[in-house]
Structures are given as C-alpha cells and as structure tokens.
Amino acid sequence: MSSRIPSSAARYAPHGYALLRTRGLHVLVHRRSAGAALLMSCVLLALSALSLSTGAAGMSPLDAVLAAFGAGPDMQVFLIQHLRLPRLTAGVLSGFAFGVGGCLLQTLARNRLATPSIIGIDDGASAFAVASIVAVPTSLAPSVLALWGAAVAAILVFALSAGAGARGYRFIIVGIAVGVMFGAITNLMLARTGIDSANQAYPWTVGSLNARPALSIWLLAAGLAVCVPAAKYAARSLDPLRLSDAVAIGLGVSLARTRAMVLVLTVGLTGLAVAVAGPVGLIALAAPEAARHLADDKGVPVLLSGLVGALMMIAADWVGRTLFAPIEIPVGVVTAVVGGPYLLWILLRKPGRGMT
User: How is domain 40-348 classified at the CATH fold level?
Assistant: First the structure.
C-alpha cells in the first residue's frame, strides 16, 4: 500500500498514488488501497458496535460502546466487558490472522485455492487440539498443540509435494489428502470418546467464538504483533515471486528464504487462529480475493486481507447469533454454508493476476 522513495525522485506521484512528504521522508501511498483500508476499518468498527449491542439483553450501539469503556449501569458493563467483548476480540483477531495467512499462502503458491484450510493446515491444528482433549489429555492447552498440528500438516504437505514445491495443483491435491487424513483421525478420536469430552472438543471441529479461553486470545494477539510486520516485510519479496522463479531470482529474491518465511508465518497465524476460533476455512479463502478486488493494486494486500477477514468473521458470528436466536449457530457453520457456492464461483471465474 505504500513505499518509500528517494527525495530526488519524489517530485511527482505516479498515477493512482498520493505522495506524502514529512521531514525529508517521501512516501507513496496507493490511493485505492488506502481508501479501501479506511472503508473496511469504518465498517468493522460499526459492525463491532452492532455486535456488542445485539443479544438477549439488547441495548443501543452507543450504550454498548460506552459499557466497553466502563461507563453505564454495572450490569451492562459486566455483560459487555466479560461476555461480549472477549468474543468480539477473538473474532477480530482470528479473522485478521486467517485473512493474512490466506493472502501469504495464495500469493506464494500463485493459486487462489492454496489456503490453510484447503491444504490441510486447519485440519492438522484441529486434530492436535482435539487430541489434547479426548485422546491423550495433557496439561498443555489445546491452543499450544493446535500450533504444533498446523506445523506438522504444513511440513507434510511441502514434503510430499516436493516435486512441485508450493506451486501447481499437485500442491493443492497433496494438501487436500493431508487434510482428509487429519480429518479422519479427528473423527476417529471423537467416535471413541465419551460424550462429555466430545462436547468439549466440538468447537475445534466446526469453529466457534463462544467462551474462548483468554490465554489463547492473548497468544493470538502476541502472534499478530510479531507476524503482521513480518508479513509486510515478506510481501516485498512475494510480489516478484508471483511472476516466475527466474524473474524473482533475477530481481535478487532468495526463493528458499522467502518461502521458508512465508511458511512459518502462515503456520503461526493459522495455528493460533484455529486455537481461538477453530477451523473457519472460508475466511482465508475469501478475504484475500476480496482484498485484491478492493485494492486493485499489483502489490500483496496483507493488511487489507486481514481487515476483510476480521470483518467477515464478525459478520458471520453476528448472523449465527441472531438469525435463529435464541439458538446459536457456530461461526464455522455459517461460513461453511456460504463457502460451498463461493468455492464453486472461485473455480469457474477467470483467474486474477498471477493466480491460477
């Protein structure tokens, strides 16, 4: 969305860019990307206020926002700060992580289907999280093992598709196979455990934002603080990687280092997000595609993908809570209902720039 340029070349801004000058530093900002990010931020704030105010104990969005800051009746403050705000925070952070992870992996593989959910990373994280509850109960939190599961799944996919690297449909097919394997393991563990343990593990199989552990939310926030700046840095090398390996090497890009960095970032973001919200696959699939259309920029829309992902997660959770209230539909079920037709549309429409 922005780039620094030398002061000697900063007299005019290219078409579609705004030139910002401050204390000798000149920054080019892509107008449409910046406008889209601002729009998504405003919509996200508005939807967040609506989500906080909606529920069995309804209130105005203004009262909900004031209660989030500790102002208002004690009952409203307790309801917002201890029940609804943690759920909203979990949705925003996990949606942002899914969006960024999907953007990185799609760009690396040059394939719109190469998302953490499609290539089995979500399933690996879910399988390890469920195992920590129903198979080998351990003092380690499911969120920690979910991160390990995402790493194991990613390593398997890249190792088994070594002939194609992170490119082409072989990579996708191997990822689907690994995901099916981990999914079968998860179902086997749930089938052989008691009903109480199965109910406890259920959110890690479909995706839910209800009563998320505070520890996993804090871990995800810390992970985003580290991974998002690193993702912006990696995006500079990913941009030429969308053309071809030969072109990228000619431009001075280290393929091995870039792919390793993107893989580590994707695993970290996905594992931590699954540990909070479970496998919510549509977000990583749809958010980067929507961000590319909103920005209409040739760069890698890392931050915009995160904002769109957070917005999609909050919207899906709000629909799940209100559509058939007082019955609550898990956020993963809502996204799965929308995800089927969207996946067909992705497969049938014309590919975008640098994508297959």
Answer: ABC transporter involved in vitamin B12 uptake, BtuC (1.10.3470)
